[in-house]
Design goal:
alpha/beta, Rossmann fold, six-stranded mixed β-sheet, five-stranded parallel β-sheet, 16 helices
């Protein structure tokens, strides 16, 4: 807990909650965009400390959850190919495809491995030159620099048996889609501090001005979150529009220039399908043409795989903040962590998983 206890201090958290109660004179709908923040809010009961007039809405900030169903099926198809070592972060193995998940593929005897970095997968490729190694490159802007660097190294060192199955998504276009929707209820945003650490928040200021909503760059511990809610409620009550940095110990306005440079070298923006939500323009990061030889989707020709979302799962509505997990008729019944209908029940950042773990009663 070294260097962390001060950001989990109950007295400070409570003081912020009381201060929010004093300055809040109107009802406000606030969306925390990140699934990690959702888990912290429920784990520490932060929503229960707030005035009833403040409603927290859970956003689509779970990269595992928004990875398209057809992308999961493509990963399963590739993992089943002979001579393939398929590498992935652990939380992707439980995400259900249309008929099975990657854990089932691993259990059936195929070589599916959990890694902690794309560079680990690259080393596996170096050590197994007779095998094809594919890394499942998913995530928001936070994971992109490492995924890009692995491809830069593979190209530089001419490692021809390494590829990435890419499903990288960008947060600002998703926020744009939420605010533009006729169903939108969001009046202010808590942004994902780890994404802002990489990308900065210039693009968020453009969004704030476009839709006339305030935003606060937010961390992940109780004091961080309550401090940012206090700042956001201040802005809402005053009618202020713009972006305030509530996570200054980690985030600079310009982000991380070195990380942005390597991202721009490997990726370009493009349209992306979000699971349960649909196609969001300019919300994905696609490999540039010079990195096409490392594109597993092209190499294995998996674009033919197209599937439909199961109608009984409302994860799309949950990811858009329109419904909460407790509103789902299948929550805790047909849909559990052992038998999930959607990714939001199994991801470590999924809203349904958070409700099941902390609010099932």
């Amino acid at each position: 807990m070294k260097y962390l206890h001060e950001y989990r201090d109950y007295s400070t958290t409570r003081e912020y909650a009381e201060a929010i109660g004093r300055i809040c004179h109107h009802p406000w709908n606030i969306m925390e965009i990140c699934g990690g923040q959702t888990h912290a809010i429920l784990r520490f009961g932060l929503d229960q400390l707030l005035p009833e007039s403040i409603r927290l809405i859970h956003g689509p900030g779970c990269p595992v959850c928004v990875t398209g169903l057809e992308v999961i099926d493509r990963a399963i198809y590739i993992a089943k190919q002979s001579n393939v070592i398929f590498c992935s972060f652990g939380d992707m193995l439980r995400v259900p495809g249309s008929r099975e998940d990657l854990f089932s593929v691993k259990a059936a005897g195929h070589d599916v491995r959990i890694v902690y970095s794309p560079l680990d997968a690259l080393q596996i490729a170096v050590k197994n030159p007779d095998k094809e190694v594919v890394f499942f490159a998913i995530g928001f802007e936070t994971t992109v620099p490492a995924n890009a660097m692995a491809l830069v190294q593979a190209r530089k060192k001419n490692i021809g048996n390494f590829r990435e199955l890419v499903s990288q998504v960008r947060v600002p276009p998703a926020m744009d889609a939420i605010l533009f929707s006729p169903q939108n209820q969001v009046q202010g945003f808590l942004t994902a501090g780890h994404v802002n650490t990489v990308m900065g928040y210039d693009e968020y200021e453009e969004l704030a001005q476009k839709f006339k909503v305030p935003m606060v760059v937010t961390g992940f511990e109780p004091v961080d979150i309550m401090h940012s809610i206090f700042l956001l409620v201040q802005m809402l009550e005053r009618g202020e529009v713009g972006v305030v940095n509530g996570y200054a110990r980690m985030v600079q306005k310009e982000g991380n220039p070195s990380a942005i440079m390597v991202i721009n070298e490997v990726f370009t923006s493009g349209d992306q399908y979000w699971r349960g939500i649909g196609l969001i323009p300019n919300s994905g990061l696609l490999l540039r043409s010079e990195y096409a030889p490392f594109d597993a989707n092209l190499y294995y020709g998996t674009e033919f795989i197209q599937v439909q979302e199961p109608p009984e799962c409302i994860s799309g509505l949950i990811l858009q903040g329109i419904e909460k997990p407790s509103d789902c008729n299948q929550f805790g019944k047909l849909c559990t962590p052992d038998h999930p209908l959607g990714a939001t029940m199994v991801s470590s950042e999924g809203a349904c998983a958070a409700y099941y773990k902390y609010r099932k009663e």
